[in-house]
C-alpha cells in the first residue's frame, strides 16, 4: 500500500506534465537536443520490446555522463558483454552518453517521475539493476523499483549541506526515497554522514570515480605540440558559469588590458604589462552560452577568437573554448587554470581533470560541490585558494612568472591525481555483486495502479 505522501507526489508530477513539455520546447530553441524523442520522457517508446537483464545507468547531465563512462568501462572490464541501458535528463548528458554506447546497448531519456511513465519504463526495459549517478534520487522511481524487487543504487554519491537542507525540508518524500535505495557508495566521509542522516544505506566510501579518468592522450599530445608555439603563456578560466566571465573581464580592464600598454619604467613591469604578456582563455561550462559569452567579450572591448572557427591559436586578446570534450587540450595548453563555478556561489566545477592533466588550479571561495577534493588538492600543493577574481588573476600572474613554483605544482597535481584512484574498480565490483544476487524481474510484474492509462498531455 503506497503512502499518502507518495500518492500526492504522483498527482503533482502528473499534473506538471504540460509544464514540463513547455519547458522542453523552450530549451530546444537554444539546444535542439531537447526536441529529440520527447515522448520517451513520458514512457512512450516506438521500438519493439527488448530483452531484460539490463544494467541501467542514469547519468542526468554532462558531468554525471563522464563519471558514468568511467564506471561503465570498468563494468565491461569485469563483466565483458554486459548490456547497458543509459538514461539522461539533459541534452549535453545524452550527447556525451552516446559516445559510450556499444552494440547491444540502448539510450533513452529518463522518464518523468509519474507512476505511469515510470511503470512503462520498467515494463519496457526490465533492468536487473539500476545505478543512479551522484545525486539523482526520484521518489516514484525508487518506490517502483522497490516494489518490483529491482535493486536501485546510488554510485559516486555526493550530498552537500545545501542539498541536505533542501532534502530535510521535504523529508516526507526524501527520507523514504533514500532509505529504499539498495546501497549507496559515497565519495567522501562527509557525504556519507549526510546521506546516512536521510536514511540511506551507505555501504562504503569509495572516493570519486572521476579520479579514474584518463585524460585524452591525443589532446595532451596536441597541446604539447602547440604549447611551445604559443606567443604568450596561457591562463584559462575553465568551465566558467554565468557571471564569472564578466568578473574576469572587469579585472582585466581594471588592470589596463584594453588600454595601451605603458613602456617599462626603470625595469619595473606594471600590472598592465603583466596582463598583456598572458594569453587569456575562457571555456564556458554550458554550450548554450558560447554565443552569449563571445558577445560579452566583444562588448567589453576585447577581440575574441573561437576554437570552433579559428582552430589553431590566434593573436586575439581572448580565446573562447567553444567546443565539447576538449578540456584535456585546454588544460594541456594552460600554465594555470582558474576553476569555474568557484567565483560565484555555485560550488565549483570538477578540478580532478585539471589535476590529471598536470595543470595547477586556482580556486575561488565556493567549492562546496567538491569540498573534500578541493581541500585535499590545496593540501597536496596542486591548487591554491583565493578570495575572489582579482586575487586569482594576480596569483595566476605570479605563477606564470615563477616557473619553478609552477613546475612544483604540476608535479603535485599529478601525484594528487594518481593517489586517489580506485573508486571505479570498487564500485563496479559492488554493482555486479548486487546484480548477481538479484532475481530477474518477473515478466508479469504489475505496474503501479495510479495513472496506468494516462493520456499523453500537451
UniProtKB/TrEMBL annotation:
The record marks 134, 210 as: Transition state stabilizer. It is found in: Cell membrane. Its EC number is 2.4.99.12. Residues 438-458 are annotated as: Disordered. Residues 449-458 have a biased composition (Basic and acidic residues). Pathway: Bacterial outer membrane biogenesis; LPS core biosynthesis. The active site is at residue 64. InterPro entries: Glycos_transf_N (IPR007507), Glycos_transf_N_sf (IPR038107), Kdotransferase (IPR039901). One of its GO terms (cellular component) is plasma membrane. It catalyses: lipid IVA (E. coli) + CMP-3-deoxy-beta-D-manno-octulosonate = alpha-Kdo-(2->6)-lipid IVA (E. coli) + CMP + H(+). GO terms for molecular function: Kdo transferase activity. Its main location: membrane. GO terms for biological process: lipid A biosynthetic process; lipopolysaccharide core region biosynthetic process. Residues 38-213 form the 3-deoxy-D-manno-octulosonic-acid transferase N-terminal domain. Keywords: Cell membrane, Lipopolysaccharide biosynthesis, Membrane, Transferase. Involved in lipopolysaccharide (LPS) biosynthesis. Catalyzes the transfer of 3-deoxy-D-manno-octulosonate (Kdo) residue(s) from CMP-Kdo to lipid IV(A), the tetraacyldisaccharide-1,4'-bisphosphate precursor of lipid A. Belongs to the glycosyltransferase group 1 family. This is 3-deoxy-D-manno-octulosonic acid transferase. It comes from Variovorax guangxiensis.
